[in-house]
Design brief:
The complex is a heterodimer of chains A (86) and B (195).
Chain A lengths: L1 H34 L2 H48 L1
Chain B lengths: L1 H4 L3 E3 L7 E2 L9 E6 L9 E8 L4 H14 L3 E10 L2 E12 L2 E12 L2 E10 H16 L2 E3 L10 H12 L5 H9 L4 H9 L2
Antiparallel strand pairs in B: 1-9, 2-3, 3-4, 4-8, 5-6, 6-7, 7-8
Helix pairs in contact in B: 4-5
Classes of the chains: A mainly alpha (86), B alpha+beta (195).
C-alpha cells in the first residue's frame, strides 16, 4: 500500500512539474509576443532622445561658454573697479 | 569568440559629418546612433536597433503598427526600399515633441531570425532637407557575417592581428589596423572594436 501511495505521489509530482513547465513556457511565449516590436519602439525612442541629447549638448556648450564669458567679464569689471579705486 | 565573428551584423554608411551618438544609449537593442549637430535645436538623428523575431515580417509589421497606434502615433507603411542586402520595409511615423511635429522614418530589414531597424528622426518641417542623405544611408544597409572579408587584400593581416589580440600577445596592432581602414566606415570599425 505504501508503495502504491508513493508511486501515486511521484506521478502527481511529476505531472505538477510538467504542468509548471508548460505554464512557464506559455508565460515565456506570451512575454515574447508582448515584447515583439520592441526593436522598432526603441528605434523611435532613440531617434527622439538622440535628437534631444544633441540639443542638450549644444545647450550645455552654450551655457559653458556663457558662464566663461560672465566669469571673465566679472573678473575684468573687478580689476577695472580696483584700478579705478587706485 | 569565433561564433561572434560569424554572427550577422548590419552595416550602413551614415551621412557625412554626422557625429556618433552617445554610446550609452538607454536601449539594449540599440547598436549605434549618429546625430547631425551642425544646427542647434532638434538635431536630425539616425540609429540602428535589432530584434530577434520568430514570426513572418508581415505579422511583425502588424504588431509594430498596433503598438504605435496604441501610443497614438501616426504609422504608415510607405512600401519597400532596395538595400545592399535585399528589400527593407519603409515605415513613416509622426509624433509631436516639444520642438514641434517630428517625422520618423524606419527601414526594417529582415534577415534570418532578426530584423534590423534603421531609424531616422527629424522635425517634420526639416525632414525634406535631410531625406536624400537618410535614403542613401538606408540603401547602404548591408548584412555581413564575416567582417574581416570586407577588408579585401588586408583581411589576412587583420585576422592575424586579431588572433594575436585574442591570444593576449598584442592588441594595439589590431586596433591600429581597424582605425586605418576608414573607408569601411565607422559602423564597421565599431563592430570590429567589439571583437
Amino acid at each position: 500500500m505504501k508503495r502504491i501511495l508513493l508511486a501515486l505521489l511521484m506521478l502527481t509530482a511529476g505531472l505538477r512539474a510538467d504542468h509548471r513547465e508548460c505554464l512557464e513556457a506559455a508565460v515565456d511565449e506570451m512575454n515574447e509576443l508582448h515584447r515583439t516590436g520592441g526593436g522598432c519602439e526603441d528605434g523611435i525612442f532613440n531617434a527622439v532622445s538622440s535628437s534631444m541629447l544633441g540639443w542638450g549638448v549644444g545647450l550645455f556648450v552654450g551655457i559653458a561658454l556663457l558662464t566663461g564669458l560672465v566669469h571673465n567679464s566679472h573678473q575684468e569689471s573687478t580689476s577695472s573697479s580696483s584700478n579705478s579705486s587706485n | 569568440m569565433l561564433s561572434y565573428v560569424l554572427a550577422a551584423v548590419c552595416l550602413f554608411s551614415p551621412p557625412e559629418g554626422w557625429e556618433i551618438a552617445d554610446s550609452k544609449m538607454p536601449s539594449k537593442r540599440a547598436v549605434v546612433g549618429f546625430v547631425d549637430k551642425t544646427n542647434s535645436g532638434f538635431c536630425p538623428s539616425l540609429n540602428l536597433t535589432q530584434e530577434t523575431v520568430s514570426i513572418p515580417i508581415k505579422e511583425y509589421l502588424a504588431i509594430v503598427q498596433k503598438n504605435c497606434q496604441a501610443k497614438k502615433l501616426k504609422w504608415r507603411q510607405l512600401g519597400t526600399l532596395e538595400t545592399l542586402s535585399g528589400k527593407a520595409y519603409l515605415v513613416e511615423i509622426e509624433s509631436t515633441t516639444k520642438f514641434g511635429p517630428s517625422r520618423i522614418l524606419q527601414a526594417i530589414l529582415p534577415f534570418e531570425d532578426t530584423v534590423y531597424i534603421l531609424t531616422a528622426g527629424a522635425l517634420k518641417k526639416d525632414f525634406g532637407k535631410h531625406a536624400p542623405v537618410v535614403e542613401r544611408a538606408m540603401r547602404s544597409m548591408q548584412i555581413e557575417k564575416d567582417l574581416f572579408i570586407l577588408a579585401g587584400s588586408k583581411a589576412d593581416s587583420l585576422r592575424a592581428a586579431w588572433q594575436k589580440k585574442e591570444d593576449g600577445v598584442e592588441s594595439t596592432s589590431f586596433t591600429e589596423k581597424v582605425l586605418e581602414l576608414k573607408e569601411l566606415g565607422p559602423v564597421w570599425q565599431l563592430h570590429m572594436g567589439k571583437l
